[in-house]
């Protein structure tokens, strides 16, 4: 996939705008998120421009996730994090604001830090779980 000239992460990869880079190889770049949700909040991105996780070739996803895992380990072992959230937003409906595949690695220090991830349980009385499971399973084959 070609570089997107309007993409802020492509500009960071090309060195056109600065970032606090912490890891770089042929396929992957990691740098501190400009908005530090918690201390050490890092973005791991593919060097090639893909819109998001869902449209990125799996070999590249694996390389990005390998780096995300290592950074999470370092956050726990050396930054004093008590936990880590690894997440990737796909499409604006899920909160994606930069349309270049990236994984957030967010170290967690306590329940009252800045990061809140709330998964409220939906009243599933109207959902037919057996039918739903069957539908999805069929498409995965
Ligand atoms: P998302 O909402 O998942 O698309 O996350 C995009 C992230 O990119 C946000 O957390 C922003 O703070 C971060 N971001 C945007 N511009 C920059 C930049 N120039 N340097 C570092 N992080 C950035
Ligand atoms: Zn890009």
Q: Can you describe what's shown?
A:
- There is one protein chain.
- The chain has 141 residues and is an alpha+beta fold.
- The chain has one domain: HIT-like (HIT family, subunit A).
- It has three helices and five strands; from the N terminus they run αβββαββα.
- It has helices at residues 8-13, 58-78, 129-140, and strands at residues 21-24, 28-32, 42-46, 83-87, 102-108.
- The longest helix is centred in the middle third of the chain and has 21 residues, at 58-78.
- The relative contact order is 0.17.
- Adenosine monophosphate binds next to loops.
The stretches of 5 or more residues where confidence is low (pLDDT under 50) are none
Largest sheet properties: 5 strands, antiparallel
Ends distance: 27 Å
CATH class group: Alpha Beta
Per the CATH scheme, the topology name is HIT family, subunit A
* Helix-strand sequence: HEEEHEEH
Mean pLDDT: 95
What is the structure about, briefly put?
By secondary structure, the chain is of the alpha+beta class. Helices cover 28% and strands 18% of the residues. The protein has helices at residues 8-13, 58-78, 129-140, and strands spanning 21-24, 28-32, 42-46, 83-87, 102-108.
Can you lay out the helices and strands and say which pair or pack?
Elements: H1 8-13, E1 21-24, E2 28-32, E3 42-46, H2 58-78, E4 83-87, E5 102-108, H3 129-140
Antiparallel strand pairs: 1-2, 2-3, 3-5, 4-5
The chain binds adenosine monophosphate and zinc ion.
Adenosine monophosphate is lined by residues 8, 17, 19, 33-35, 43, 89, 95-98.
């Amino acid at each position: 996939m070609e570089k997107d000239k309007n993409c802020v992460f492509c500009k960071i990869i090309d060195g056109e705008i600065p970032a606090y880079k912490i890891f770089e190889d042929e396929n992957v770049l990691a740098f501190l998120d400009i908005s530090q949700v918690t201390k050490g909040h890092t973005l791991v991105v593919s060097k090639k421009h893909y819109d998001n996780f869902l449209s990125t070739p799996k070999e590249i996803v694996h390389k990005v996730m390998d780096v995300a895992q290592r950074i999470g380990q370092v956050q726990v072992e050396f930054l004093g994090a008590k936990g880590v959230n690894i997440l990737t937003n796909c499409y604006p409906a899920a909160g994606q604001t930069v349309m270049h595949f990236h994984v957030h690695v967010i170290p967690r220090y306590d329940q009252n830090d800045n990061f809140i991830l709330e998964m409220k349980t939906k009243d599933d009385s109207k959902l037919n779980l057996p039918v739903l499971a069957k539908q999805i399973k069929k498409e995965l084959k």
